[in-house]
Amino acid sequence: MTQRGRERTRRGRRGDPVARRRGGDVPARRPRQVRREPGKPRLRLGIATKQGAGAARVLGMSTTRRAAMIAIVVCALAFTLAVPLRTYLSQRSEIAQQEQKQAELRTEVAQLRARQAALNDPAQVEAEARRRLRYVMPGETPYLVQLPEDSPQAQQQQAQNRPASGAVWYQQLWSTVGG
């Protein structure tokens, strides 16, 4: 009899879909039920585990799929925020440059106003005319001192060393090669 029982379990039922998938006559195995010892308490799952399992059941996704979905959402948020953040940072640097330029222009305006106030004085205008334009008041004798660097001969030698600016480039090249 024990052999008949074993044969029955080996053959399985013909209508069993699990047995068909496994290759015919082999029945599906059922997990053993573990018996508790009377003195040991049951292990209880924490509240967080139960809630997580409930969320997995509701969403119908495994933890790997949930992690992948979270990663996709985080990447989408990062890409969504990247362009406005780059624009914001570039505008901040541009504003800093414009403020620096504005400060420089303000100092230049202050210097020009000081110069304008100085040129309102007739004595300052006369000194500028003497220095820049070499004006002389009536009855004065002007003297012009020439230093060796300012002599006309030195200026002529420099002009000869320089090629003519109106010449074509190949003429300038030929004059430097030919000597």
Automatic annotation (TrEMBL):
Biased composition (Basic and acidic residues): 14-40
Entry keyword Transmembrane helix: yes
Keyword flag Membrane: yes
Coiled-coil positions: 88-115
Protein name per UniProt: Septum formation initiator family protein
Pfam families associated with the record: DivIC
Region annotation Disordered: where it falls in the sequence: 1-40, 146-165
Recorded superkingdom: Bacteria
Transmembrane segments: 67-89
Keyword terms, alphabetized: Coiled coil, Membrane, Transmembrane, Transmembrane helix
